[in-house]
């Protein structure tokens, strides 16, 4: 799922391409992508794009006459920019925003249709899409600490909870916790003030670093390779590979459709965290420390 750094890059590239431009046509190619009834897509024809913003992991396009388009890419949704002469695309293209100088296409891989578009007729209606998460890059340590300790959760859950923090998901939370040298299962209310400060610094540094990395990677090009698994990540998506800090194999905790990656030596004092599936299968044979698997 595109997270804060990815959405930031999308917004920067879209701003240079469509801000102030007239939207000629909004084409809905799949009935599953449009999750609202009013206003209709035809209401946006001929309207200029007057602003762009991020709401958590959503992208919002503001058009003339207080019309808004709220895009949520979810897990497999992506945006593509195509020149005006390009073909409409295959079955992966669920919607297209057509301008005179090009087309912004929303695609979604896989059979599950999770990405969505909501058409909104007034700014007040945007509130239903606001989850209330703190914008970490705009916050100070005191606000971060207050939000972190407002509920007693694991650090992994707290960082990825959109009601607590805005725009952070599975991938960058792994990277943040590795940089902070903290266990994903540590409880928020058991952290010392020093640990909270360390986590705050790691969170801001990780997000800022990846925004800059993605900017350099894209240059003037529209981002095409938006993925949760990026070259240069320390632990996310790198199960079994050496930790760049200590060389120990990266570990994982699997649950539902997600996977948390961490370095046992750097983050948990060498202790392996129980993987629900494997630890249940292996029982007493489940290794307790990283030394048993190296």
What does this structure look like?
Strand 10 and strand 11 form a beta hairpin. With 294 residues, this protein is an alpha+beta fold. The longest helix has 26 residues, at 193-218. It has helices at residues 4-18, 141-148, 155-160, 170-180, 193-218, 264-267, 276-282; strands at 22-23, 25-28, 47-55, 58-63, 67-72, 77-82, 93-99, 102-108, 116-120, 251-255, 258-262. It is built from seven helices and eleven strands. Residues 281-289 have low confidence and may be disordered.
Structure characteristics:
294 residues, alpha+beta, five-stranded antiparallel beta sheet, four-stranded antiparallel beta sheet
Provide a short characterization of the protein structure.
Helix content is 26%, strand content 21%. The chain is an alpha+beta fold and 294 residues long. The strands form three sheets. It has a five-stranded antiparallel sheet with strand order 1-3-4-5-9. A four-stranded antiparallel sheet has the order 2-7-8-6, with no helix packed on it.
Order of helices and strands: HEEEEEEEEEHHHHEEHH
β-strand number? 11
> Which structural category fits the helices and strands?
alpha+beta
Q: Could you give the order of strands across the largest sheet? A: 1-3-4-5-9
Tell me, rounded to a whole number, the average pLDDT: 91
Cα-to-Cα separation, first versus last residue: 32 Å
| Anisotropy-based shape | globular
Helix count, DSSP H or I runs of 4 or more residues: 7
Query: Quaternary status of these chains?
Result: single chain
């Amino acid at each position: 799922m595109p997270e804060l750094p990815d959405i930031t890059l999308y917004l920067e590239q879209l701003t240079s391409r469509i801000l102030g431009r007239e939207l000629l046509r909004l084409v809905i190619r799949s009935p599953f992508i449009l999750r609202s009834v009013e206003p209709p897509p035809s209401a946006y024809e001929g309207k200029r794009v007057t602003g762009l913003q991020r709401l958590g992991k959503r992208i919002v396009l503001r058009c003339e006459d207080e019309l808004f388009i709220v895009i949520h890419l979810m897990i497999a949704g992506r945006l593509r920019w195509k020149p005006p002469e390009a073909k409409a695309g295959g079955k992966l293209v669920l919607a297209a925003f057509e301008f005179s100088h090009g087309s912004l296409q929303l695609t979604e891989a896989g059979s599950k249709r999770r990405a969505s578009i909501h058409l909104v007729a007034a700014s007040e209606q945007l509130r239903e899409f606001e989850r209330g998460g703190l914008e970490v890059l705009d916050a100070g340590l005191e606000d971060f600490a207050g939000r972190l300790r407002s509920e007693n959760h694991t650090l992994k859950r707290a960082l990825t909870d959109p009601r607590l923090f805005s725009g952070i998901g599975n991938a960058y939370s792994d990277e943040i916790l590795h940089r902070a040298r903290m266990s994903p299962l540590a409880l928020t209310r058991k952290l010392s003030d020093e640990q909270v400060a360390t986590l705050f610094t790691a969170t801001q540094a990780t997000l800022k670093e990846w925004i800059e990395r993605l900017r350099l990677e894209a240059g003037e090009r529209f981002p095409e390779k938006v993925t949760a698994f990026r070259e240069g990540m320390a632990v996310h998506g790198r199960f079994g590979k050496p930790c760049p800090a200590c060389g120990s194999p990266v570990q994982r905790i699997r649950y539902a459709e997600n996977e948390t990656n961490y370095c046992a030596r750097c983050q948990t004092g060498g202790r392996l965290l129980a993987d629900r599936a494997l630890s249940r299968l292996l029982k007493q044979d489940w290794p307790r420390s990283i030394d048993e698997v190296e």
